[in-house]
Design brief:
Elements lengths: L2 E6 L9 H17 L4 E5 L2 H12 L9 E3 L10 E5 L10 E4 L13 E6 L3 H16 L3 E6 L4
Length: 149
């Protein structure tokens, strides 16, 4: 059975800012890749996916992870593939980190889903809707409050 984990972003956490959130996504991506997973980063749209790819390019040399946008890169893709709702991820992805606030019907093809509950009220409501969709699809669900110093 597939699992879905929602990370809760509290208003006072560093992840509540865009740069703090971006850094956390890079941290999680690297963490999963170091454990041998093939990760798919799902953006809102093509422009968002390209922005995520650019963030990965700007990482410090010790934090760099090979990545590619859907349709680019080697035949069997890199450890991280970046896309959006209108493209199909490579077949060999185990984990999706969902950065979009849109429909989650794509999630069933992954064994692990990582999603977020942002601070902003409208985004929080959209996260609740995604949570319901995962539950109805039979995912094992858990929530984790992001720990910060």
């Amino acid at each position: 059975m597939a699992n879905a984990t929602f990370y809760i972003v509290s208003p006072e956490s560093p992840q509540a800012t865009q740069s703090g959130f971006d850094n956390y996504v890079l941290f999680l991506s690297k963490h999963f890749v170091e454990q041998g997973a093939k990760v798919y980063l799902n953006g809102h749209d093509k422009e968002h996916a390209e922005r995520i790819a650019e963030l990965l390019w700007q990482a410090e040399p010790d934090d760099y992870i090979a990545h590619n946008l859907v349709g680019e890169g080697p035949k069997y893709a890199t450890n991280i593939e970046i896309g959006h709702q209108k493209v199909k991820p490579n077949w060999n992805r185990q984990i999706v980190i969902n950065l979009a606030d849109n429909n989650t019907t794509f999630a069933k093809q992954f064994s692990e889903v990582v999603d977020f509950v942002p601070c902003e009220e409208n985004a929080k409501q959209l996260a609740r809707e995604r949570y319901k969709i995962y539950r109805q699809a039979g995912f094992n669900l858990q929530t984790i409050e992001i720990q910060h110093p």
